[in-house]
Amino acid sequence: MGGASSQILLAMIIYIGVVIGIGLYYARSASESSENFLIGGRSFGPWFTALGAEASDMSGWLLMGLPGVAYWVGLSDAAWTALGLGIGTYLNWLFVAKRLRIYSHVAGDAITIPDFFSNRYKEDKKVILTIAALFILVFFSVYAASCFVTMGKLFSTIFNTNYTHMMIAGAIFVIFYTFIGGWLAESASDFMQGTIMIFALVVVLFVGISTAGGISLVVENAKSIPGFFDFFGIAKPVLEGGVQKLSEGGQPLFGEAGSYGFLTIISTLSWGLGYFGMPQVLLKFMAIRDFNELKISRRIATVWVIISLTAAVTIGILGRILFPNALLTQSQAESIFILMSRSFFVPLFAGVIMAGILAATISSADSYLIIAASAFSKNIYHGIMKKDASDKKVLQMSRITLVIIALIAMIIALDENSVIFTVVSFAWAGFGATFGPLMLFSLFWKRTTRNAAIAGMITGGTMVFIWKLLLKPLGGIFGIYELFPAFVLSCIVIIIVSLSSKEPTKDIQDEFEQVKSLANS
């Protein structure tokens, strides 16, 4: 290993040491109860809640996946996606956060999303709880895999080593500190990681603009590529065997610009719908100590997201201008942030910058593992299989499940050619369509029934698979992002089944009115 790589490794080791230290610091508190391990005892302030939610939400795709899309096909796909995410973030904090925090406490002091839905409809047979928990296990296994892919790409690219070995090493690190520190360590480290992520993005952005000769020159060069700097067009790299072809002069070849029509814009904007069903974000709402502090959190989170998404998209554009022929496959394009960091900075500082990718990945992977573990241990094991299990036994089962889910995710992540953006988009659609419509109707429509909740979840979750695997390959109107049709269909089913079912019982409606009154106070 050369001197430069050694300095980068040193920065990474220091960062990893800090994260492990956080895990050890919270280990004792996390072991006191399953509530502390799984939701931190509802003890977090507005800054921890805001940065924790956004850091765990964005993951490594913010520093690798999104810049990679911008590098590969230009502005439109990345920018419309970012716009949808920005709008979705704000609306989620504005409408869902406060009411969910109040409702989850009033409805049996729920500490997981399946718990909340089950308690909301006061079910005796835990059908809603079981379905929700199973969907969480499936989609978070995929989500955690995307994080492990990011770590494998990061370390193998930096140190020119075997992807599989690096992916496994990164996964073991995440498992270790999450295992000992639980939600408390996860949220505390997320605060630090959210800070590192935005610092890394902003620094690389400004140095990249300066290196490229200023914004006007960047725009001029970007416009020279057909469709690359167009909100209603898209660049089309000329490929041969999945690799972009180069001209005799070594410049990457592009075909005629593709169209980016209304349907495609709706498809990318619909990423914002996913927020209403994201357990890693929703649980942060539930964990804040005082729901009156959520307004502060909303402002912090919104500013963070606007800056981060704008920087990530711009970095991808800059990367194509500065390093036009360095990354010639879609998978390789996701390493543009790493390439720019290594090119712009001395090795030790580059290591600090690239720790932002590690931070983004860890902050999401730990959330996914804990929530998936809670879905089994708290909801299936304790809620259905062994209702008399002690809290200590539930905590033990949470940790065992965490390791098993991580192992499944590692198996999924063995393919080093996985495109992070694609893997994340599928899991995002899964959660958004499964839980998003039901969350909104549960919080804002008193007439929603238990049967409708079950039908809505099953419809949304299964339609993501049907649309992605069977309908989307047909192209045309079916080429739309699977989240949108699945979300809409789930909403329709919830309304139809609710109106066709007997009204919810008086105690359910009274509880809804109580929450509504508290939320409006």
Brief characterization of the structure:
With 521 residues, this protein is mainly α. Helices cover 74% and strands 2% of the residues.
Structural class: mainly alpha
Average pLDDT, to the nearest integer? Answer: 85
The name of the CATH superfamily reads Sodium/glucose cotransporter
Categorize the overall geometry.
globular
Query: Helix-strand pattern, N to C?
Result: HHHHHHHHHEEEEHHHHHHHHHHH
What is the number of helices?
20
Largest sheet: 2 strands, antiparallel
Total strands: 4
As a percent range, the share of helical residues equals: over 70%
CATH top-level class: Mainly Alpha
For the record, give the distance between the C-alpha atoms at the N and C termini, rounded to a whole number: 61 Å
Strand order in the sheet with the most strands: 1-4
Which percent band covers the strand fraction?
under 5%
Q: How many discrete structural domains?
A: 1
Low-confidence parts lasting 5 or more residues at pLDDT below 50?
none
Radius of gyration, whole Å = 23 Å
Could you name the CATH topology?
Sodium/glucose cotransporter
Could you explain the architecture of this structure?
The protein has 521 residues and is mainly alpha-helical. It has one domain: Sodium/glucose cotransporter (Up-down Bundle), CATH 1.20.1730.10. Helix content is 74%, strand content 2%. It contains 20 helices and four strands. It has helices spanning 3-30, 34-39, 46-58, 65-73, 75-106, 113-120, 127-159, 163-211, 215-223, 262-269, 279-287, 294-322, 330-333, 336-344, 347-385, 391-412, 420-444, 450-471, 483-500, 506-520, and strands at residues 233-234, 239-240, 243-244, 258-259. The chain has a two-stranded antiparallel sheet with strand order 1-4. Strands 2-3 form a two-stranded antiparallel ribbon. Helix 3 crosses helix 15 (347-385). The N and C termini lie far apart (61 Å). The mean pLDDT is 85.
